[in-house]
Amino acid sequence: MKDTIIIIAIIVIILAGDMWTKKYLNKTVDELLGTLEELKDNVIVAKESNSREKIKEEMQEVEKKWKKTNEIWAVLVMHQEVDNIEQALTRAKSNINNGDLEVALQEIETAIFFSKHVKEREKLSLKNIL
């Protein structure tokens, strides 16, 4: 009887941890996607008006938010997924600093794609199980 209670308790802890992880990832992915979409829109405006200073500052803010998110994601998400987002953001920052906003826009789109991929990959679905 005691063993059964311990096993049930372990299963409950695992399921609760899994639900918390999914909720946290969904929340942080949505926040990251919102930030990246806003950055993308502002890069488009900056590209048309040929002004980069505001975009540079905004990119620094995105980087700060990403570093906080990345600390926890490194434990929860496959490292390749995190690395892909990290690389895209680094290339976007570099291109913004160099004035190549068209390529920066592509890199932001890449970061958006990989962020959505993290959310999709962590969903409980038949596709992810098989």
Q: Could you name the CATH class? A: Mainly Alpha
- Return the structural class: mainly alpha
Low-confidence stretches: none
Number of strands: 0
Alpha plus pi helix count: 5
Q: Element order, helices and strands?
A: HHHHH
User: Judging from the principal axes of the Cα atoms, what is the shape?
Assistant: elongated
- Tell me the count of domains: 1
C-alpha Rg (nearest Å): 19 Å
Task: Give me the CATH fold name.
Answer: Four Helix Bundle (Hemerythrin (Met), subunit A)
**Tell me about the biggest sheet?**
none
> What share of the residues lie within helices?
over 70%
Q: What portion of the residues fall into strands of 2 or more residues?
A: under 5%
CATH architecture group name: Up-down Bundle
Kindly report how far apart the N and C termini lie: 35 Å
The averaged pLDDT comes out at: 88
